[in-house]
Design brief:
With 383 residues, the chain is of the alpha+beta class. The chain is 31% helix and 21% strand. The chain contains 13 helices and eleven strands. It is elongated and about 70 Å long.
Length: 383
């Protein structure tokens, strides 16, 4: 998946162009669990002392150490959840355990086709900082952002004594000059230019298209963090956004696609009525509409049709999903093929169909409420 992530989005000529870049950077894929690195520049490898094999497929947290500021880590995580750029100074560690100040500038890369985040670009600009204490300063090693500098790439195990020595570092004492900040931004823009010029298919862009994203209360594309959480719900369900015209589907589970025979591209962006057919009970459809307008849950049994036009009885449960502010952010619809439902469900036997549906609704609500705003962002709790 790591190798395919890069190859699917960009032309092979991009690798040669990236190898010429005179700064340190990585590409990560938030669509893969744990947002792993899918490309690391030679400069990044030289700076950190790791090999490509040790880096690819891993989350960047391996650069953190005992003195890394946890608040800074949360700030980066929030930017990833909210799919926005951020710039922070952070204390990182080489493979050999040596600490160094890193001006980290991260920016999302969007798909031109549907506005989803394809990758994150992360540029690491090592910076000099005035740190009190000769013993601490001696443990530091100055790194140049130029990939051409000769730095040792050791395969020795981490020197834990250096980690212990660095625990007195205070990240607040790191002073970042405007020149470093500007250099980091310029590096990111240079990389984004290369990515957009050497991409495949519809292409990528550094700005999410406004015709794809409907704004804070009506995203046509749910964020990658929520997407990964929803993929863990192993039931047939869809997530619809009532803030958009015609309440379209913004996420469909794999089990829903298997149940109906449609592809994800054929489902996302459409109202669920495409499952209806000539024999679908209009009263059941009317009940669904009334409950959605009232912000209530409902359970109905109605005749739906697969892509190949074969009918099936759908035991459908619909429920509102509220954001952390209490407003309805989405509606979740959980489907069960009535033919596969054993009724009645006797005590002590398998969990009843309705309980399974409520479990799926609960899992979706937990995923959404862990994010702020309209269910798309992390909740910041006051101290």
């Amino acid at each position: 998946m790591v190798m395919a992530s890069f190859k699917a989005a960009y032309k092979e000529t991009l690798r040669g162009a990236l190898q010429k870049a005179m700064f340190n950077f990585v590409l990560t894929d938030p669509r893969i669990q744990d947002n792993p690195i899918v490309y690391a520049s030679d400069g990044f490898l030289e700076m950190t002392g790791y090999t490509a094999e040790e880096v690819l497929g891993r989350n960047c947290r391996f650069l953190q150490g005992p003195a890394t500021n946890r608040r800074t880590i949360i700030e980066i995580r929030d930017a990833i959840r909210e799919e926005r750029a951020c710039q922070v100074s952070i204390l990182n560690y080489t493979k050999q355990g040596k600490p160094f100040w890193n001006l980290f500038h991260m920016a999302p890369v969007y798909s031109k086709e549907d506005g989803r985040v394809v990758h994150f670009v992360g540029v690491q600009t090592p910076i000099n900082s005035s740190i009190d204490g000769d013993s601490l300063a001696s443990a530091m090693e100055c790194f140049c952002s130029s990939a051409s500098q000769n730095l040792s790439v050791s395969t020795d195990p981490v020197d834990t004594s250096k980690h212990r020595q660095s625990t007195n570092f205070d990240e607040d004492c790191c002073e970042v000059g405007e020149a470093d900040k500007d250099r980091a931004k310029t590096s990111v823009h240079t990389l984004l230019s290369e990515l957009t010029n050497k991409c495949k298919g519809a292409g990528v862009t550094e700005t999410r298209c406004t015709t794809v994203s409907a704004g804070p209360s009506g995203e046509r594309v749910i964020c990658s963090s929520l997407m990964l959480s929803l993929t863990k719900v192993q039931q047939s369900f869809v997530l619809a956004n009532p803030h958009l015209s015609d309440n379209p589907i913004v996420h469909a589970s794999d089990m829903f696609l298997r149940l109906t025979g449609y592809s994800r591209e054929e489902v996302v962006g459409r109202n669920c009525r495409f499952l209806q057919g000539p024999e679908t009970d209009r009263r059941a459809v009317q009940l669904i509409g009334e409950c959605i307008r009232a912000g209530k849950s409902c359970t109905v049994k109605l005749l739906n049709y697969r892509k190949d036009k074969t009918p099936f009885w759908n035991l459908l449960h619909i429920a509102p999903v509220r954001s952390s502010s209490g407003k309805v952010a989405f509606y979740v619809g959980v489907q069960l093929d009535a033919a596969s439902v054993d009724e009645p469900c006797h005590a002590g036997t398998e969990t009843s169909p309705h309980i399974k549906q409520l479990g799926a609704v609960g899992a979706v609500r937990v995923a959404v409420r862990s994010l702020q705003g309209e269910g798309l962002r992390r909740v910041h709790k006051s101290q």
